[in-house]
Write a structure and sequence with these properties.
mainly beta, five-stranded mixed beta sheet, three-stranded antiparallel beta sheet, 31% strand
Length: 180
Amino acid sequence: MKRIVVIILCCLGMYACSEKKPGFYTGDDGVIFYLSNTENYDADPYPDASAKGSVSALKTTDTLYFRVDILGNLSTEIRKFALKQTTEFTEVDVSDYYVGKEVPVAGVNYIAFDDSEMEKYYEVAPDSSYVVFPVIMKYDPAKAGKKTDFLLIFELLPTEELPIMDPRFYRAMLYFTQEN
């Protein structure tokens, strides 16, 4: 009888000690923006970054970082996600945040999401549950001499490897200013 109890306890101990990694769960694979404020469905820059970017003739580039969470099963392969700029807004979007702000031009006011320089930032390392990637703003000499406020809205694109997990958390906003 003791032998059976010992065997049962050993089996239970082995089951309890199976490896579980925090931050992971099983289920459908997908991708969403990290949200520090769940009341707002558009993600803002990652909390470790400043809230607003700024470029000028003296500081020709600025970088803000965003976090994308990878949900679902662990993968031993590198996976990629994709981004695109959007100018499509809902009625909820029409607010003071958008008044007086220009839509930045890819390649002129920021490094385009499909630029080959940026591709490496959209790769998810094996066994990773998130990625922090940069959005690099650029100084536009054509707008020199005047202050310009920009609002860049971009969204995750579904890929074969990483579909959009929750349609509420697929967009992000970035505010930046170009000074004289």
